[in-house]
Amino acid sequence: MPGIAIPSVDAAKKIADAFEVSLDYLVGEGINASFDKKTLQRLQAIEDMSTDFKTHLFSIIDSVIRDYKTQQAYK
Questions:
Q1: Cα–Cα separations (whole angstroms), residue 70 to 12, 27, 57, 60
Q2: What is the three-class DSSP state of 49?
Q3: For residues 27 and 11, what is the distance between their CA atoms, to the nearest angstrom?
């Protein structure tokens, strides 16, 4: 399209890094588009954990989500 500047991937990555977001988030596309960079880092840290530790952590997360949904249902 004439008149539209499209940054290189390298420039786009620098912009994403400056705003501390992922490239997906910056362009609003992809499976991780709604996650900020800190959330993606947390997800990667979880992915790197042992299976037993992940199982324990997901049990805690599931409990918090369940409690949150219950709380929301009674508001």
A1: 41, 34, 20, 15
A2: coil
A3: 13
pLDDT in tens, 6-32: 768 788 788 888 877 777 777 776 666
Secondary structure letter of residue 36 according to DSSP: B
**Amino acid type, 28:** G
CB 22 within 8 A of CB 37: yes
Cβ atoms of residues 37 and 26 within 8 Å: no
* Contact between 34 and 25 (Cβ < 8 Å): yes
Residue 63, Cβ density class (10 Å: 0-12 exposed, 13-18 middle, ≥19 buried): exposed
pTM for the full predicted model: 0.54
| pLDDT of 21 | 76
Alpha helices in 1-75 (DSSP H): 9-18, 23-27, 37-47, 51-73
